[in-house]
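Interim report, section 4.2 (structural modelling).
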Amino acid sequence: MAQDILVYCEQNNGAFRKAGLEALRKASEVAAQLGGTAIAVVIGSGASAIAAKTGEYGAAKALVIENDALKNFSISAYGAALAAAAKKVSPAAIFLPATTQGKDLGGALGALLEAGIAADCTAIKVEGGKLIVTKPIYAGKAYATVQFECSPAILSLRPNVFPAGGPDAGKTAAIEKMDVAVTARETVKEVVATGGGKKELTEADVIVSGGRGMKGPENYGMLEELAALLNAAVGASRSAVDAGWRPHSDQVGQTGKTVSPKLYIACGISGAIQHLAGMRTSKCIVAINKDKDAPIFQIADYGIVGDLFEVVPALTTELKKVL
Amino acid sequence: MKIVVCMKRVPDTEAKIKIDASGKAIETTGFEFVPNPFDEYAVEEAVKLKEKIAGSEVVVLTVGPKDSAVQMRKLLSMGADRGILLVADTTNMDAYATARLLADALKTIERDIIFMGKLAVDTCDFAVGAQVAQMLGLPVVTQIVKFSESGGKVVCEREVEGGKEVVEVALPAIFTAEKGLNEPRYPKLPDIMKAKKKPLEERAVTVPPSKVTILKIDYPPSRPPGKIVGAGVEAAPTLVNLLKNEAKLI
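Predicted structure of the assembly:
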């Protein structure tokens, strides 16, 4: 049986999404252990122009699928295209980035290939020739280690957990174009980009996050300024979102996003269990809170007890001196 | 309009999770089960639509142990008309088995629109909506924050990385709800009383084997104990120094 791993390398108008390259790099390592190779699948407009680059992140080969029905993302058409690639290759596993598209495709492929899916994986290893993966359950309050009773195994990899490394200069993947007839049952009428090049929380290296202690939406400017300095995304706790101060897309926690940045700065966030579940895998946690007993201090690598309205501007000033 | 809302019962999101003696499951006592929070947005949207279109019906469909009736009644008190409970031990059921059972049941129910939550906050696989759609050959739009139906077509919005997508589909179709889609109503006492009398049908099902099995469950990797490095503005230079020279992050 084939021991290759098929990887969905998500791209948008000729630019790869970082999380897809992370999945590819990990796939190339795991495939080597299985005695196979990583095969990239690049779908949509602009795919053929960049497919060879997947070699720089470990792909031995790249399958390119481009046609009118795949111009915009849709679960039905992209799912069918990826399923066709899987049927051609008969891989041991399919790796997806745990992005919106990757999660959508995990479900679709699970049904189309009658296979099992583990989403948002944080660890992947090979034992006795089988994949053993770890994934969060209860939004990160616990982690399940699972195995697959089917082939292929379908898994999505949490962004920011597996380093993409590279690019390995000079390595290119052999390109193979695939003709797949698919129809989209969903029509994308419009894609509206968020203004100002807003950084995506799940992919950011640094997150500055504000909670109930921010007291109101008008005070987030202070966090935006700090975030701009650190090239960070701005997040929020559930109470800040429920109060209508910040959009839901900014929420970190069990009913929001799960993030693993290198640095997470929590301002005025007490650290409710459902918030901690969403950010506790951050590499370094800084907490600024006036309540020294706030639960956030129990997991903060660096805690500052104090009024965030004084500490945050002081921190911004200090950072300006060294950055 | 015939609307089906798929529901799953999950532990309250404020609950602490305890791993049981087997190490492969969590203890199911010491907290309350609630309807999956995202399913509440799903039922709210369904009931709003029913209120707009005369002659509509909202059916709640779930897979779970018999006790799931309690969480189904909650959704019935929010305005759904009746419930169908596929009775099964869901402890070790994976997304595939869940989707299979739901898809098979949905083949027997009249439906134009199927709503469900974007994910269940316990198993977190984000898979069932897209899975059921492929099993039934239906369009699906996941994590929607806006929904509008007119003449058998639906235009909805969903949040994606870096922006939003406006997506159109023809009915019948499946939609999975994201927080922000609406503000779920709080049922009043008369609604709760009325819900107790609404029809709730139990169906026996055979659970297909899972494609993914749990070997063990662990608590999150422990972090070093928290450290307070100072108080007030004086701590700002200390922190910058630590971030630069100890954590080497800036």
